[in-house]
Write a structure and sequence with these properties.
2 copies of one chain form a homodimer. The first copy, chain A, is of the alpha+beta class and 119 residues long. Helix content of chain A is 23%, strand content 33%. In chain A, the strands form 2 sheets. The first copy, chain A, has a 4-stranded mixed beta sheet with strand order 2-1-6-5, with helices on one face. A two-stranded antiparallel ribbon of chain A has the order 3-4. The radius of gyration of chain A is 15 Å and the shape is globular. Chains A, B: It catalyses: 1-(5-phospho-beta-D-ribosyl)-ATP + H2O = 1-(5-phospho-beta-D-ribosyl)-5'-AMP + diphosphate + H(+); 1-(5-phospho-beta-D-ribosyl)-5'-AMP + H2O = 1-(5-phospho-beta-D-ribosyl)-5-[(5-phospho-beta-D-ribosylamino)methylideneamino]imidazole-4-carboxamide.
Chain lengths: 119, 119
């Protein structure tokens, strides 16, 4: 086990499933692009490769963001919160955006507006 | 059951514990302030009161942000992501900041810098 591994496990609190939520933010304008989950291995891969890697809870596997879409995220900084149980990753977003729908951000819908329309 | 209740449960996917992560962002500069969890009741209280309410997993109770600290968060918009399982709330942050440590944001530590220092 390297120093890096020991240290990450001390600094970051993974939940009972071994995961931590990672918020991804565009470093150029601070827009929030997406939220996904990381396990220790995807966090280590993110740090070593300089691009975001996540853990898919549905597929139960690691995935490198942008491998199929080209929407690679280059890591500019990686912050962790006061409780050590949430990550905030500032990136340069390549391609047209972060969302699999084709939108720039995954947060393209307004709950208040949509609630009123539907009720 | 009101239309609002039906609708929120249709639009937002709560996890097996009945919770959804809520990212809170400063609407004035897009800085990410914190991440906390909401259940259906805290989401309804947030929408009806116009300020953030969360659910504390450790204390197992609802809490209104700022009730003890004065650091109230006025909701400007409430977005939900492509999967419907994460919220993004843009707020006006009152008081000195969002974090219980006294920091403006809960994300005041850099994992890469701290890993290198400790190893």
């Amino acid at each position: 086990m390297t120093h890096d591994e020991i240290d990450l496990e001390r600094l970051v609190k993974f939940n009972s499933d071994g995961l931590v939520p990672a918020i991804v933010q565009d470093s150029t304008n601070n827009e929030v692009l997406m939220m996904a989950w990381m396990n220790l291995e995807s966090l280590r891969l993110t740090l070593s490769s300089g691009r975001t890697w996540f853990y898919s809870r549905s597929r139960q596997e690691l995935w490198a963001k942008g491998d199929t879409s080209g929407a690679i995220q280059e890591v500019m900084s990686l912050l962790y919160d006061c409780d050590g149980d949430t990550l905030l990753i500032k990136v340069i977003q390549r391609g047209s955006g972060a969302c699999h729908t084709g939108n720039y951000s995954c947060f393209y819908r307004d709950l208040i507006a949509d609630s009123k329309m539907a009720s």
